[in-house]
Amino acid sequence: MAQPTIDSENTVKSVETSFHIVEYLKDVDGARVTEVADALGIAKSTVHRHLVTLVEIGCVVKEGDIYDVGFRFLEFGEYAKTRKAAYAMAEEKVKELAAKTEERAQFLVEEHGQSVFVYRETGRNAVQTDPGIGKRVPIHASAAGKAILAHLPTEEVREIIDQHGLVALTEHTITDPDALFAELEEIRERGYALNNQENIDSLRAVGVPVLGNNDQVIGSLSVSGPTHRFKGQYVEREIPDLLLGTANELELNIKYS
Amino acid sequence: MAQPTIDSENTVKSVETSFHIVEYLKDVDGARVTEVADALGIAKSTVHRHLVTLVEIGCVVKEGDIYDVGFRFLEFGEYAKTRKAAYAMAEEKVKELAAKTEERAQFLVEEHGQSVFVYRETGRNAVQTDPGIGKRVPIHASAAGKAILAHLPTEEVREIIDQHGLVALTEHTITDPDALFAELEEIRERGYALNNQENIDSLRAVGVPVLGNNDQVIGSLSVSGPTHRFKGQYVEREIPDLLLGTANELELNIKYS
DNA sequence: GCAGGCTGTTCGACAATGAGAAACATTATA
DNA sequence: TATAATGTTTCTCATTGTCGAACAGCCTGC
After folding, report:
1. Is A29 close to B83, i.e. CB distance below 8 A?
2. CA proximity to B92, closest of B238, B244, B204, B253
3. Which residues of B77-89 are buried (b: 16+ CB within 10 A; e: fewer)?
């Protein structure tokens, strides 16, 4: 207690450990008490108590001796997805985009300096991948993320960079802050963002911001696909035009509802 | 501490209070510190600390002075929905059912003696209601729930009744245990369950169990619609036949995968 | 523009309560 | 059947959550 400033971190540690336990269960697809205890370096009895608590509130299910993530999260997750009218309306637009382009379309939101997939729909052409709703990805390495960043106050962008850094996911990822700021400026002028394999190799994407009242950015819509199809007019005119039109409709829906 | 047996309840109380806080935020669509403190009868400072913790782990977002449920839950909820191959395969079947019948189709699972909506799809004809994924409903008052109960060990059914009771949701709800057991027997013989306004007035539904290896019940598929359409051959033959066929396909998929 | 009453946030002290070690119970295995 | 692994319970200690009160910011209303 000699460092009252450092140790404070005014935070409930038991809640954090419970969270870490659930996270671990998710990562390894269910586990037994001792496994969790060993992996997280916590006493067996402690883990057990946390698991009993989590089972009681429905966040964890016990199947034999294996504990795994329960359905309670679904309830809260679905609530988060629809608690703002804007989010709920975005879902339709994502479906529309996927149907029209036959590619993969998604709606993302910024949270904690990262971008979160809130809705995703895969059109016929799209590669069938893990939907990954709720997944978090670095915000600087996607079209949707950059579209959001471009409409966030510069100061906030700086904070996000400080906190998360500009990690390289491929050789195309923007890792220099100045380069990123220049790109954001360009995005603002052009109206849409492009992602050229900055996230995953041979994957391109186009993203546009969705602005609410007083021009605050709510999230962004994006469409992504393979480089061999995402090129030329298609990625520089057709997709951006469609996205901008859709975002505009969505913004109007949001404003007058 | 004179009652070491009663008070034990070997459970992490901080985790429970954090959970209650999040639950409250959901129920009232976001709230400020003092509001939560007053509502739950906890000190302001305590609530604050919990909220700070929850924000840190991403379960709660702070917008101005209002705290609300965050997107972290989405990640875990989506995981819960797909952690078993059977669940993921059920999604397609639900879509299929909704498309074929144009009614509302859903896949439910039992957890903690209640039934949880895991997937729901609304066909063109279906009344557009709140999707309610993740919502929990009394298991004895729906076709899907009864279909599950019918394939659970009698002892377990008894436990569920003891724990949750047979609350009446409409005047048609089965509230007598013996009547319920008789109904479950009938369901087993007939192969499918019917819900005649036991849940919501003027709503009927048909449900069939989905059985996994060694005939353990995994969940159930159901189709629901208004009484004026759900009658005669449609509800007694067409829908049940379609459901039984679909469940059978699903069971085969599950067994050989 | 200033005072008063709201908030959210921080601080400090006490004691409740969560953590861990070890005993116990239970299952699976050889 | 015995042995080893697990899950569960018990117990003690001090960590750490709780509360009340003080502090700081904001808006309201005079």
Report:
1. yes
2. B253
3. bbbbbbbbebbeb
Domains of chain B by start residue, with CATH: 13-70 (1.10.10.10), 78-255 (3.30.450.40)
When CB atoms are compared, the residue of A19, A58, A111 closest to B111 is A58
Type of residue at A166: L
Question: Which of B55, B73, B133, B136 to substitute to test the interface with A, most A CBs within 10 Å?
Answer: B73
Q: For the segment B3-31, what is each residue's pLDDT rounded down to a tens digit?
A: 333 334 678 899 999 999 999 999 999 99
Residues B166 and B146: their CA atoms lie apart, in Å, by: 12
Interface test with A, best of B18, B29, B62, B75 (most A CBs within 10 A): B75
Buried b (16+ CB within 10 A) or exposed e, B222-243: bbbbeeeebeeebbeeebbebb
Interval A202-244: pLDDT, tens? 889 999 999 987 788 999 999 999 999 998 888 899 999 999 9
List pLDDT tens digits, range B39-53: 998 989 899 999 999
Dist CA A204 CA B167 (whole Å): 54
Q: Please provide the DSSP assignment of A124-138 as one string.
A: SSS------TT-EEE
- Distance, CA of A43 to C1' of C20, in Å: 6
**Nucleotide closest in space to A13 (CA vs C1'):** D16
Instruction: Determine the distance from the C-alpha atom of residue B3 to the mean position of all C-alpha atoms in its chain, rounded to a whole number.
Output: 36
Closest to A119 measured CA to CA, from A85, A90, A141, A144: A90
